Amino acid sequence: MSLVLYSAHYGTADPLNREVFGGYESCRRVLFTDRPDLALPGVEVVHDPLDGLDPARASRRAKLMPHRYFPEAGHSLWIDNKSRLKRDPQEILAALRARSDAAFLAFPHFRRDCVYQELQTCREGGLDDHRVLRERQRTYRAEGMPEHAGLIEGHFILRRHTDPAVARFGERWFEQVLRYSRRDQISFPYLAWKLGLRYDLIPASEWKETVEFTVFDRKARRPDFPRRNVLYQEARRLYHRLRGTRTR
User: What is the spatial distance between Cα 39 and Cα 11, in angstroms, rounded to a whole number?
Assistant: First the structure.
């Protein structure tokens, strides 16, 4: 079945990563962008204006609803602009299909398995409006969403397009991003729990041979919202660095 490899670049928060697809040409490659002047050799560039959205939310249109843009595709593989593919996408598809019959696959989050922890991290890092994040926390708890219900890394997602449940989920997912937090990793576990989405996790052990998580130095990137608990963040970062040194 046909496979589409796709990514997106909107706004100016990060530069365009020209190596996002890793140089692999074994399938159709598509880049969505709000820049009408952008071109990449061998890649289909789709100009997609913001239409009143902020760049973060505009970039989620194709990411969360690929069935709208690739109705004839059998599968789609999303990879964030900040990442770089390190393995042939057709090889990835064959390996994952042999392991799982789920129509939605992603890597587990590399540090957390709980949306409440993710909400706290986003507040501390200034990654979204604090009021929105606190409202989501209150809503999730009021509805009974359990802690440690799972968390994915949204930078790498494989979907099977022949499953209508995945398409319906994508529509609802984008609605959540439009109405509430722009952080799709926050709304995913809530909706998956709420709607009973059947998905599977790619073993974390396969991460390093499959994708480079980020090719940018994001330490100097300025958040859109004020950071919170800055001293606590620095202490926690030091703790993880020392812990990693001891375990090597």
Answer: 15
